[in-house]
Design brief:
Protein name: Fibrinogen C-terminal domain-containing protein
Number of strands: 13
Order of helices and strands: HHHHHEEEEHEEEEEEEEE
Keywords: Signal
Distance between the termini: 36 Å
Strand content: 15-25%
Radius of gyration: 26 Å
InterPro entries: Fibrinogen-like_C (IPR036056), Fibrinogen_a/b/g_C_1 (IPR014716)
Number of helices: 6
Length: about 375
C-alpha cells in the first residue's frame, strides 16, 4: 500500500495549491486571487477521497485474496494511512486559514492606500496623532487550561493550545496542569502528565481490560477520549509526536499495575530517534533504561531489553517486549482479545505475573 501513498499525497498537494490562470488583460491583484485559491481548498478532501476510493477497494480485495494474515496487515496499513490522511486534511484546513488571514491583511493595506479628498485640517498637530492598532485576538491559547475531564469524546475547541505537544507546553513555562489538551497541529486531543518524571509526557496507550484488543485497535482506539482508566490508544500517531523532537533520542515510559498506584513495575527508556512505535519485528534492542519502577531485572520471563513491537502474525501478544509472540511472551503490554488465559497480559514471572492496567507514554526529548 505504501507504493501508492506518495503519488496520492503529491496529488493532494497539487489540488491544494493549484490556482487557475487569469486572463492577461484582467491583471487581477493578489487580493483578488486569494479568494479563488482558498475556495478550492475545501474540495481537496473530496478529490482526495475520489482518488483513494478505488485504491482502498483494490487493497482490501487483494487482502481478502491473500488470507487472514494479509488481510490483517492490510487493515493495519489502512489504520496508519487514515492517521496520515487526518494530518493532511488538518494541514489543508490550516492552509485555508492562512489564506483567509493574508486576504484580510491585503484588504486592510488596500484600504490604507485610498487617497482621501478631504479639505486640509488647520489646527491639528501631527505629533498628537497616535496610530491606532486594534489588539488582535490570538488564534490559539498561550496559557491553556486542560479540557474539562470526563466529557470525552472531545471535539475541536474554538481555540487550540499554541504549543504542539505536552513537552512544548511544559517548556514554554508556567505551571500547566495534568489533563487533556488539544494542541495546534494535533488531529486529536491528548492527555498530558506534568507531575511525574520531569513532566511533558503524552499518553499513547491505556490497557484497562483485555476486551477488544487486536493489531488494529492498538493503533487507534477511543482516540478522542484520552483516559488513564479506560481502554485508549493513539499508537498510530506516536511517531509523529516523536518527530516533534530534535535530539538524537526520545524517551518512553511504561507503567504496569497502575490500578495500585503510579510508577509501578516498569520504567523509563531512551531510544534512538529512528526507532518506531509501530515496528513489526523484535529488532529494536538498542534501548537504555533510565529509570526502574519497583524491583525487577531483564529476563525471558519478564520485561526484555527491547522497545515494544507490534505483532501482526501468529501468537497472542499484540504489543510486547518479548523476542517471541508465541512462547515465553512475558513482558507483553497488550494481549489479543481471543486469549482468555490472562485477565490482562503476562508481565513479570513471580513478581508481577499479570500486567494489570498498563500506561504507555512518550516524551519526544530525553530531558
Amino acid at each position: 500500500m505504501r507504493k501508492w501513498l506518495a503519488p496520492v499525497l503529491s496529488a493532494l498537494l497539487l489540488i491544494a495549491v493549484h490556482v487557475p490562470p487569469s486572463a492577461a488583460d484582467q491583471q487581477p491583484t493578489a487580493a483578488d486571487q486569494l479568494p479563488s485559491a482558498a475556495d478550492q481548498l475545501p474540495s481537496a478532501a473530496d478529490q482526495l477521497a475520489a482518488l483513494l476510493g478505488p485504491v482502498v477497494e483494490a487493497a482490501v480485495s487483494r487482502a481478502m485474496q491473500g488470507g487472514a494474515d494479509a488481510g490483517q496487515r492490510a487493515l493495519v496499513e489502512l489504520g496508519r494511512l487514515e492517521g496520515r490522511l487526518d494530518a493532511a486534511v488538518h494541514g489543508l484546513a490550516e492552509l485555508q486559514l492562512q489564506f483567509g488571514r493574508l486576504e484580510g491583511r491585503l484588504e486592510a493595506a488596500a484600504d490604507q492606500n485610498v487617497t482621501c479628498q478631504c479639505p486640509p485640517q488647520q489646527h491639528v498637530k501631527t505629533e498628537e496623532l497616535q496610530p491606532v492598532t486594534e489588539e488582535q485576538e490570538p488564534s490559539c491559547e498561550t496559557s491553556p487550561a486542560p479540557l474539562l475531564p470526563g466529557l470525552g469524546p472531545y471535539w475541536v475547541p474554538e481555540r487550540r493550545t499554541c504549543a504542539r505537544s505536552c513537552l512544548q507546553l511544559r517548556d514554554q513555562g508556567g505551571s500547566p496542569r495534568d489533563g487533556v489538551y488539544w494542541f495546534t497541529g494535533m488531529p486529536v486531543p491528548v492527555l498530558c502528565d506534568f507531575s511525574h518524571d520531569g513532566g511533558g509526557w503524552t499518553l499513547l496507550l491505556t490497557v484497562a481490560a483485555r476486551d477488544g484488543w487486536s493489531p488494529l485497535s492498538v493503533l487507534r482506539r477511543s482516540e478522542r477520549s484520552p483516559s488513564l482508566t479506560s481502554n485508549y490508544a493513539i499508537l498510530a500517531r506516536a511517531d509523529a509526536i516523536r518527530d516533534l523532537g530534535t535530539g538524537t533520542r526520545f524517551a518512553y515510559r511504561i507503567e504496569a499495575q497502575a490500578e495500585t498506584g503510579r510508577r509501578r513495575w516498569g520504567g523509563i527508556w531512551l531510544a534512538p530517534r529512528g526507532y518506531s512505535f509501530v515496528h513489526e519485528a523484535p529488532t529494536q534492542t538498542s534501548v537504555s533504561r533510565a529509570a526502574k519502577f519497583d524491583s525487577w531485572e531483564y529476563k525471558d520471563t519478564g520485561i526484555e531489553q527491547r522497545m515494544p513491537w507490534l505483532n501482526l502474525g501468529a501468537g497472542s501478544a499484540v504489543l510486547t517486549t518479548s523476542a517471541s509472540a508465541t512462547t515465553q511472551w512475558y513482558g507483553t503490554l497488550v494481549t489479543h482479545e481471543t486469549n482468555t488465559g490472562y485477565t490482562f497480559s503476562p508481565w513479570i514471572y513471580e513478581q508481577a505475573v499479570q500486567s494489570g492496567r498498563v500506561l504507555y507514554w512518550i516524551r519526544e526529548e530525553m530531558l
